[in-house]
Write a structure and sequence with these properties.
- Keywords: Membrane, Transmembrane, Transmembrane helix.
- By secondary structure, the protein is an all-alpha fold.
- The protein has one domain.
- It contains 5 helices and no strands.
- The longest helix is centred in the N-terminal third of the chain and has 23 residues.
């Protein structure tokens, strides 16, 4: 497992978990919870070799963490969503450079794939 993927997974999970906890446990509106997660995450120092990728993963994770409590029943499910999101991010890192909506699309696809798989299994 590469360090890059592990960093993406951990930062995606931190963003996802932080946003989800803020809006489910503390009744912060989902959009504001995502904004706060991204803002606070932007102050975390990461090695320069990773460029802006950890910050982008935190934002993408916060978008995925905006999902409702009706879809997600445990923190393990957030970990699986984060795994899917980190894989999608790493696989599409060189694609769609300069296009808007990449992070939101990754978040949507990761949650949608999880919910679809959960419904099938």
């Amino acid at each position: 497992m590469s360090k890059f993927f592990l960093l993406k997974y951990v930062t995606f999970f931190i963003g996802c978990m932080s946003c989800f906890i803020l809006h489910t446990q503390f009744a912060v509106p989902a959009v504001i919870a995502s904004c706060l997660t991204g803002l606070i995450g932007s102050f975390i120092a990461f090695p320069k070799q990773y460029e802006n990728h950890p910050y982008a993963a935190i934002y993408a994770g916060s978008f995925a963490g905006m999902c409702s409590q009706g879809l997600i029943n445990s923190y393990w499910e957030l970990a699986i969503i984060s795994l899917i999101g980190a894989m999608l991010y790493v696989l599409t890192a060189k694609m769609f450079t300069g296009f808007g909506g990449k992070l939101g699309s990754i978040a949507f696809i990761s949650v949608a794939l999880f919910v679809l798989a959960k419904g099938i299994v």
